[in-house]
Amino acid sequence: MNFNLFNSIILAGIIQGLVFGLVVPANRKYRSTGTLLLVAFIVSFSLDNLQYLLEDIGLITEEQLYAYLFIPFELLSGPLLLLYGLYLMHPDRAFTRKDKCVFIPFVVGFIACLLHKTLYAMGMVAPDVFFDVETLLEFVAIAIDVWVLLYLTWRLHRFAKLHSQASPQLKWFRIVLVLLLILSVVWVGITIADYFYDTEYWYILYISMSAVIYWMGHVGIYNFGREQERKKDRLSTQSRPVISLDRPKNEHIAALENLLIGQKRFLDPKITLDKMADELDLSKSHLSRIINTELQMGFPDYLNALRVAEAKIYLRHPDFANYTLLAIGLEAGFNSKTTFNAAFRKFAGCTPSDYRNALN
C-alpha cells in the first residue's frame, strides 16, 4: 500500500470536505441556496480526490477504478462554482436555463462512464480504453473551469463598479478566483506532462487546490453567518414592542430591559432568571417579585413576549422568507418548535404558520 505523507494530507482534506458536507446542511441556520451550492462544490471536489486516492494508495487498481468506480466529478466543479458565484453577486436572481447548460458536459461524461462500465461488464471493451476518454474529460473539465473563472472574474469586476458598497464583502471571493485560475493553468501543464511524459506532479496540485477550496468553504460559511447576523441587527433597529408601564419604571426593571433588550440577551435560549439576578446583584426571589409586580407577568412570559415580537419581525421580512418556522423560532430565542408555537399562540393569538400565511 502506497500511503505517504502527501496521501495523508490529501486524505485529511477529503475527510474535512465530507464532514463539511454533512455538518453545514444539518444546521438549519446555514441552509440557503448559496451554502448548499458551496457544500455541493466542496463535496464533489472531495469525492473526485477520493476516487483517485483509493487507486493511488493501492486499495483498488487503475482497472477497477475505471471499470467500476470512476465518476467525472471534475466536470461538476465549474458549474457549481459558477452558480455559487452568481448567487453571491445576485442572491435574489433566479438561475436561467443558460446558466444550467454548463451541467451538460457532466451529464454526457456520466453517460460515457456508465456506457464504458456496461461494455466492460459484457466483455466488449478493455478498461484501459477508457484512459484516453478520461484524459479527454479532464481537458474538458479544465476548459470549463477556466472559462467559469474568467467569466466570474469579469462579472465580479462589473458588479464592483455597480455596487461599490457590496464589493468589499466579496473581496475574498475575488482572491479565490485568482488562486484557482493560477492552479488551473498548473493543472493544464501537469495533465499534458502526465499524458505525454508519464510524470507525477499531482500531489502538488491536489494539495494546493484542496487548501484553496477548503479555505473557500470555511470563509464562505463564515461570511454567510456574518451576513445573517447583520440582517438580524438591521431588523433589531426596528421598533420592538416592549412592556409599557403607566408609571415610571423601577430602576431594576430598567436595568433588566437594558440587559435583555439593549444587549439582546433574550435571544439566548439558555438565559434564566438566576443569571439575570446574578448580573443585577439581586436575589432571584426579589427580582421575580419585582417583575411580577411591575410587569404583571412572570419572567418566562416576559421573555417569550419579547421573542414572539422578534419572530414577528422575521416573519414579516423578505430576507427570512425562505426560513422554516423552526429556524425562525430558533433565531428568536426559542429552543423548540413546540415552545415557539405555544408562546406565539399565547401572545399573538394565532400560530406562526397562520401569521405568515396572513401576510401573503
Give the arrangement of secondary structure elements.
Blueprint: H1 5-26, H2 33-56, H3 62-69, H4 74-89, H5 97-100, H6 104-121, H7 130-162, H8 171-197, H9 202-236, H10 251-262, H11 273-279, H12 284-295, H13 299-316, H14 325-331, H15 337-348, H16 352-359
Helix pairs in contact: 1-2, 1-9, 2-3, 2-4, 2-9, 4-7, 6-7, 7-8, 8-9, 11-12, 13-15, 13-16
Low-confidence stretches: none
Q: Tell me how many strands there are.
A: 0
The total of helices stands at: 16
Give the fraction of residues assigned to helices.
over 70%
Give the biggest beta sheet.
none
Q: How far apart are the termini?
A: 61 Å
Strand/helix succession: HHHHHHHHHHHHHHHH
Nearest-integer average pLDDT? 84
Instruction: Assign the structural class, choosing from mainly alpha, mainly beta, alpha/beta, alpha+beta, or little secondary structure.
Output: mainly alpha
Rounded Rg: 27 Å
State which percent range the strand residues make up.
Answer: under 5%
The shape is elongated
Salient structural properties:
16 helices, mainly alpha, elongated, single chain, 360 residues, 73% helix
Quick synopsis:
The chain is mostly helical and 360 residues long.
Would you write up a description of this structure?
The protein has 16 helices and no strands. With 360 residues, the chain is mainly α. The radius of gyration is 27 Å and the shape is elongated. The mean pLDDT is 84. It starts with a helix and ends with a helix. α1 runs parallel beside α9, α8 runs antiparallel to α9 and α13 runs parallel beside α16.
